Amino acid sequence: NMPLIQNFWNVLEGFTQIERSLFLKFVWGRSNLPLASELKDTKFIIQQLREHGTEDKSPDNWLPQAHTCFFTLDLPNYSTKEI
User: Fold this and answer.
1) Rounded Cα–Cα distance for residues 29 and 12 (Å)
2) What is the pLDDT of residues 35-75, one digit of tens each?
3) Which residue from 20, 13, 8, 73 is spatially nearest to 45, judged by alpha carbons?
4) Which active-site residues does the annotation give?
5) pLDDT at 54
6) Which of 44, 48, 52 is nearest to 26 (CA)?
7) Exposed, middle or buried: residue 67 (CB in 10 Å: 0-12, 13-18, 19+)?
8) 37 — phi, psi (to 5°)?
9) Which of 3, 15, 29, 63 qualifies as a cystine partner to 68, CB 3.0-4.6 A?
10) 0.70 exceeded by the pTM?
């Protein structure tokens, strides 16, 4: 129910098929979903990025980070959906 997560899903719903494919490549290292049997034990995790490697303290200026081995997205707590 976090606004950050709700905004994420709203933005992703507006993506084209090509953008969705690029998103999957960013977070998972592949451009399409595997077979359902391969997804059995795999869960997509979105977590809030709380620290960033720069001195900039504004999450609005940070980029998301992906961990393709774990199918995880670290998402900065952006102040608006547009950012």
Assistant:
1) 17
2) 777 777 778 899 999 876 767 788 999 999 999 988 899 99
3) 73
4) 69
5) 67
6) 44
7) middle
8) -65, -30
9) 29
10) yes
DSSP-assigned letters across all residues of 17-65:
HHHHHHHHHHHHSSSS---GGGGTT---EEEEE---SSS---GGGPPPE
C-alpha to C-alpha distances, 75 to 3, 22, 58, 78, nearest whole angstrom: 12, 16, 13, 8
Give the Cα separation of 47 and 5 in Å (integer): 9
Bridge partners of 47?
A: 74
Residue with tokens 């998972």: 28
Q: Are 3 and 76 in contact (CB under 8 A)?
A: no
The tokens describing 44, both together, are: 């997509």
What mean pLDDT, rounded, does the chain reach? 88
Residue in the block written with tokens 């707590």: 77
